[in-house]
Structures are given as structure tokens and as C-alpha cells.
């Protein structure tokens, strides 16, 4: 195979990667708008945030410094009262038993749980509306 083919292939791969990143960033921006709207509506409706807990893959629960709202019944995905999106599944840790877990925010998704093995995916907008309907 020629060097031209390899160069052309490398450019195509780079282009597809850049396009995927652009789509993910656009999706995160849309999801972030939904979250901001939800937080405003939640405060207006008196839907108070609660202390969020993280869970290890083995099921152990850890406190976190976060306050917010759980998005799924398993309580593994949440948004903080500051508008950040979190997966609350963390590795097991003896240190976290004492000090608590400190999960990092992730870019929000428009479809929560998309690609997960359990098949439990749902539009973010619908999950947020369900939370508001409970208030």
C-alpha cells in the first residue's frame, strides 16, 4: 500500500474523530441548557436538592460533598445544585469510607444511560420533567 493511502486514511480518521467530538460538545451544550432550566424551575417549585451519595460497583455507599437530584431510580446518575452532571458509581475505596467519595463531573448527555448494558436509557428532558412533576 502506498504512503498516499495511509495519509488519506489518517486524515479520514482524524476528521471522523473531530466530527464526533463536535457532536458530543453540541449535545453537552444542549443538555446543559436543559439542566439550567430544570434548576431554575426546581427552585421556583420548591424542589429542594438532597445530599448525594456515591455507590461502589460492589454496592457500598459513600457520602459526597454534593447536593442535587438523582436522575434514575438506581441513584447512580445525578445533577448537582450547581448544574453539573455526575455518574455516582465509583471504585471501592477504604479511604472513601472515612473521607467520603468525591466524584468528578462529566459532560451531560441528552439520552441518559445510552449505551449502557442494562438497556435503561431515557431522554434527559423526560427525567428532569419527572422530577419536577413530583414537587
Describe this structure in words.
By secondary structure, the chain is α+β, with helices and mostly antiparallel strands. It has one domain (3-134). The chain is built from three helices and seven strands, in the order αβββββαββα. A five-stranded mixed beta sheet has the order 4-3-2-1-5. A two-stranded antiparallel ribbon has the order 6-7. Strand 1 (50-56) and strand 2 (61-70) form a beta hairpin. Helix 1 (3-45) packs parallel to helix 3 (124-134). The radius of gyration is 19 Å and the shape is globular. The termini are far apart.
CA-based gyration radius: 19 Å
End-to-end distance, in Å? 64 Å
Total strands:
7
Provide the number of structural domains. 1
H-E order = HEEEEEHEEH
| pLDDT < 50 stretches | none
Judged by helices, strands and strand pairing, the structural class is alpha+beta
Average pLDDT: 88
Major beta-sheet overview: 5 strands, mixed
Number of helices: 3
Helix content: 40-55%
Keyword list:
7 strands, alpha+beta, 44% helix, two-stranded antiparallel ribbon, globular, 3 helices, five-stranded mixed beta sheet, 135 residues
How would you briefly describe this protein structure?
The chain is an alpha+beta fold and 135 residues long. It is built from three helices and seven strands. The chain has a five-stranded mixed beta sheet. Strands 6-7 form a two-stranded antiparallel sheet.
List the helices and strands and how they pair.
Layout (H helix, E strand, L loop, with lengths): L2 H43 L4 E7 L4 E10 L6 E4 L4 E3 L1 E2 L3 H6 L11 E2 L9 E2 H11 L1
Parallel strand pairs: 1-5
Antiparallel strand pairs: 1-2, 2-3, 3-4, 6-7
Helix pairs in contact: 1-3
